Amino acid sequence: MGLGLNIGIDLGTATVLVYVEGRGIVLREPAVVAINTKTGRVLAIGEEASLMLGRTPDIVKAIRPLRDGVISDFRITELMLKEFIGRVNTGFLAKYFKPTIVVCVPSVITPVEQKAVEDACRHAGAKDVYLIREPVAAAIGAGIDVTLASGSMVIDIGGGTTDIAVISMCRPVFDESIKVAGDKFDEAIIKYIRRKHNVLIGEQTAEELKINIGCAYPREEELSMEVRGRNLVTGMPAILTISSTDMLEALEEPVSSIFEAIHSVLESTPPEL
After folding, report:
1. Range 73-85 burial, b when 16+ CB lie within 10 A, else e
2. Of 217, 248, 212, 249, nearest to 227 (Cα)?
3. How would you classify the pairing of strands 24-30 and 33-36?
4. Within a domain: residue 119?
5. Dmax (CA) of the chain
6. What confidence score (pLDDT) does residue 94 get?
7. What is the predicted pLDDT for the residue at 55?
């Protein structure tokens, strides 16, 4: 056994989770990096950078280096990983022993995308890098015995992708990854409010609506939330009250896409499972 840390990373489109063996989840940060567009210098990473989304001058850009579950900006992803690994890989031994890292990746990923993840982790300081499919990791985390010969369906809705898999004997028997997930929910909410009320809201406001009152089926108790935006007709600030019924209507299209993908996986699964 090596003296370096054993680290698990859930490299999500929206959020990065870092787990250290023996300590549990030690870091949970938004997958956002703020850079100076003129110099390319990184100004902030994680929560601090997330607060800049939609609120920064032109010279400062808050970006998400992962899109649809895969790396879209290698350099920025590497810098982000180096920062997060550096925060948890501390102490005397960290100076001399590199960590071993296990990274979650979407169930459907190309060899080029796999190599990008591995290279980014190694450049960020990893000794060895291992990849695990997100549905398998989710099943293990949920306490499912993935070694059994029976099938277990896992649906992992992330920020950029929804991964659906039927797992048996430690591997996906059939899986599918669609680029419809949390980010598409936010986009659908923004479009719905713009279409219905002629008001533009920001990404963070849409996410707050999704988390607080979003629903895929009618709630027993109606919920509502007050939000602020900009009236697209007058250009003036606007205040709206949005209900969970509004959310049901706004999210109908992306939720239906996920249901269709689930149905497709079930249809393709061997009846023996």
Report:
1. beebbbbbbbbbb
2. 212
3. unpaired
4. yes
5. 65
6. 73
7. 67
pLDDT digits (tens, 9 = 90+) for 227-238: 999 999 999 999
How far apart (Å, rounded) are the C-alpha atoms in residues 249 and 135?
Answer: 28
Q: Please indicate, yes or no, whether residues 232 and 110 belong to a single structural domain of this protein.
A: no
- The terminus-to-terminus CA distance of the chain in angstroms comes to 37
Which of these, 74, 70, 69, 82, lies nearest to 7 by C-alpha position? 82
Return the pLDDT at 54. 66
Decide: helix, strand or coil at residue 119: helix
Closest alpha carbon to 115 in 102, 104, 131? 131
Whether 153 and 193 share a structural domain: no
Sign of the CA dihedral with 258 first, then 264, 266, and 270 last: negative
- Distance (Å, whole) CA 59 – CA 76: 17
Question: How many structural domains compose the chain?
Answer: 3
Measured CA to CA, the distance from residue 24 to residue 7 in angstroms comes to 10
Distance CA 20, CA 22 (A): 6
Residue 54 makes CB contacts below 8 A (sequence gap 6+) with 62, 202, 203, 204
Q: DSSP state, 99?
A: P
Q: State which residues of the chain have pLDDT below 50.
A: 1
153-186 tens-digit pLDDT: 999 998 888 999 999 988 888 888 899 999 999 9
